[in-house]
Structures are given as structure tokens and as C-alpha cells.
Design brief:
This protein is α/β, with parallel strands linked by helices. Helix content is 27%, strand content 26%.
Length: 384
């Protein structure tokens, strides 16, 4: 990585601060990261490790190749920063690592950061191919361990499988906290209710949980469809179907999508039948017999060479969550909301009251939530 104007050596030498470097390389999420780390850890060493990461596509296993799982992002988004601060506070108070569940761990970018903050982490990732990357991420924590500690002391196991498999070893632990990063929008409404309720049952009273989800934004059709369902009082107004046209050019050595047009988005109900030729979300069962067909359009030449152009009509189920839906999901399970906010790409946190439909249509937003499980709370969730 080339650092414009500044070098990491300058930070190590003390000429510029970690915060200045973070802003210079376009990583404001790393600014002030020392507040999340134990006193024995060098924030400069931590930042050096973090700057070596980049967004990574989640690679689906062979039986899920018709699914789109998006990316694993390396950024310390506000919900993750809060989790790291909670971990660090408890670690510094009693010297013991709080046990934290990393649900939907991806490549392990959050896993190692939570360990560096002072946690003992159990990561669970659906795809085995992607889970292999967690092992590489865990190597980053070696320099941050206390004398006599091993990596296996901070991450006893890396688990694979669905968060909806409640017989998974992941649910045999009693956690101090949990981080649910970019996961809930891959679940159906019914699955998300059951998962959050199960999460409540495996987190200790007084435990902390944070989540980040995609919210309806960046499209007039998506926001209008969500708003109509929201005004109708639907429990999960962001559960919808996208109908799109995808235009692809196939050259001799590579293929490239050159046009994606959202035809419409419509509200989708739990239990609705998916139409034929659906590019399915991760929450649907993929089928090789149900893949959309590419229709030949034309053959031509451009500056990259000869190509054939194909068109495909694609349908995709997605589950966006607004702040009130996310709050109800956790509070109905028994959690107490500490903080909930919208985040844009800066990242900047905005209260739900500040967000308008026009802002959602013209920007790209996520929603973050931070919750606690009440002290003296019943073990099981209270969702009705």
C-alpha cells in the first residue's frame, strides 16, 4: 500500500499521529482506535495490520454458488467500535477476556480486532471457503497477545455453518457479548426473529450485542416500495423482490456486466412463492435448474475486442431494515436498546429523526444498533 504524503515509518518515528495517518489514507474508522485497545497494545502496530486489509468478496461454497453473499469489510464501523470498547472495558477491569460470538464472521476482519481489544472470540461463518480466511486473520493477533498466551486461548475454534442451525456448537457457549455484522439482511423475517431470540438466550444477563444491516436506500423504487409497506404497518416492510435487467458482454478472455437496470421493487411476504428464474438470496435454497438464462442480443467489436452481448432478466429477494424494524426485532426478543443510528459512507452517524426518504434515495446507508441484555433477565427470549 502506498501512503500519500505520509509513511507508516513516520508514525513509528513519532512524526505524525495514528489519527493523522488514518485520515490521510482515507480510513477515518481508525482514528482514535487506541480507546478500544488494552494499554499493552501499540495502536500504531494495530493500525499497520488494519491498513493491510481490503474489502473481500465472500466466496460461496459449491452448493451455494447461485447465492450472493456480498463482501467482508475491514472497517471498524461504529457498532464494531462500540463492541471493541465494551470488550476492552471489561478486559481492563478484571483481566479476563470476555467471550464474544462473531455471527457471520466472513474473512475474520472483525474477529481479530475483537481479540486485540481483549476478547475471546467464537467466529461462525456459513461458507467453508471464506472461513479459511479467518485463520489468516487470526495470525494478526499474535503480536498483541500477553506473555504465555496462544492464539487458541483467544479463539478456541473456528466454526462453519448457518446461524439458523441452532444445534451448532456455537450455541453451546454462554457469551458476554455478540457482534452481528452485515448478517441479518440475509435472513427472512421469520429467520431473523428466531435468530435474535436465540441470540438472547445464549448471551449472559448484562451482555452486549451490536448489529449492522442494510437499509432501503440508493434507489427511488426501493425506498418508495419500503415506504408504502411501512405506512401500511407491515412488520418487515423492507422485505422485497427486485426485478432487474442485466446486460453482459462476453469477450474472448473475460466477461463484464455493462448495464444493470432496476425495473421495479415490490413488497414481499414471508411464504410468498419465488417466481421462476430467480437469482436467489442467501436465505433461499439454490437450484441449478432455476438459474436465469442469458439471451443472446448481438455480436460486435469495441476497443477491447470482439464480444457477444447477452441479456438476463433477474429477480432477487432482499431484506432491508429501517431503524424502527431493527429496534423492534431486538426489543421484542428482550434486549434493551442503548443506541440506534443510520450510517453513511463517511462514516457519519445520524439519528433516525434526521433521515428523510430523499436522503435515502440519494445516498447509501446502513443502520447500526447497540443493545444490552437486562441484568436479572430470564434466560429465554420473550418474543411473542
Amino acid at each position: 500500500m502506498i501512503l500519500n504524503h505520509f509513511s507508516f515509518a513516520a508514525v513509528v518515528s513519532g512524526f505524525i499521529s495514528v489519527s493523522t495517518l488514518a485520515m490521510a489514507v482515507g480510513r477515518p474508522d481508525l482514528e482514535g482506535v487506541e480507546s478500544c485497545l488494552p494499554t499493552h497494545i501499540s495502536s500504531k502496530d494495530f493500525v499497520e495490520e488494519a491498513l493491510g486489509e481490503a474489502p473481500t468478496i465472500v466466496v460461496p461454497d459449491e452448493d451455494k454458488e447461485d447465492c450472493d453473499f456480498g463482501f467482508t469489510f475491514p472497517y471498524i464501523v461504529p457498532p464494531l467500535r462500540w463492541i471493541m470498547e465494551e470488550i476492552n472495558s471489561r478486559y481492563e477491569d478484571n483481566g479476563e477476556r470476555p467471550l464474544v460470538f462473531d455471527a457471520g464472521a466472513g474473512a475474520g476482519y472483525a474477529t481479530w480486532k475483537m481479540i486485540a481489544a481483549g476478547g475471546q472470540v467464537i467466529p461462525l461463518e456459513l461458507n467453508k471457503k471464506t472461513a479459511k480466511s479467518i485463520m489468516a486473520s487470526l495470525k494478526k493477533v499474535r503480536q498483541f497477545l500477553q506473555e504465555g498466551e496462544k492464539i487458541t486461548d483467544t479463539c478456541p475454534c473456528v466454526l462453519t455453518g448457518s446461524v439458523m442451525n441452532f444445534n451448532s456448537p456455537a450455541y453451546t457457549y454462554n457469551y458476554d457479548g455478540a457482534y452481528v455484522g452485515n448478517l441479518l439482511h440475509f435472513l427472512t423475517p421469520d429467520q431473523s426473529v428466531k435468530f435474535v431470540s436465540k441470540l438472547y438466550s445464549v448471551v449472559k444477563p448484562g451482555g452486549f450485542v451490536a448489529a449492522i444491516v442494510n437499509t432501503p436506500s440508493f434507489s427511488d423504487s426501493v425506498v418508495d416500495t419500503w415506504r408504502q409497506a411501512y405506512d401500511q404497518g407491515k412488520d418487515f416492510p423492507g422485505y422485497m423482490m427486485h426485478n432487474s435487467q442485466i446486460l453482459r458482454r462476453a469477450y474472448d478472455s473475460f466477461q463484464q456486466n455493462v448495464g444493470v437496470r432496476l425495473e421495479e421493487a415490490r413488497s414481499f411476504e414471508e411464504g410468498d412463492l419465488l417466481p421462476g428464474r430467480v437469482h436467489k438470496g442467501s436465505f433461499a435454497e439454490p437450484s441449478s435448474d432455476d438459474k436465469p438464462n442469458w439471451l443472446f442480443v448481438r455480436e460486435d467489436v469495441d476497443n477491447r475486442g470482439r464480444f457477444k452481448e447477452f441479456l438476463r432478466y433477474e429477480h432477487r429477494t432482499t431484506h432491508f431494515m429501517d431503524s424502527s424494524t431493527l429496534r423492534k426485532l431486538f426489543e421484542n426478543a428482550g434486549f434493551i436498546t442503548h443506541h440506534i443510528y443510520y450510517m453513511d459512507t463517511f462514516p457519519r452517524c445520524l439519528s433516525p429523526e434526521e433521515i428523510t426518504d430523499e436522503m435515502l434515495k440519494n445516498g447509501q446507508f446502513n443502520v447500526g444498533i447497540e443493545v444490552y441484555k437486562p441484568e436479572n433477565a430470564p434466560k429465554e427470549g420473550i418474543f411473542t
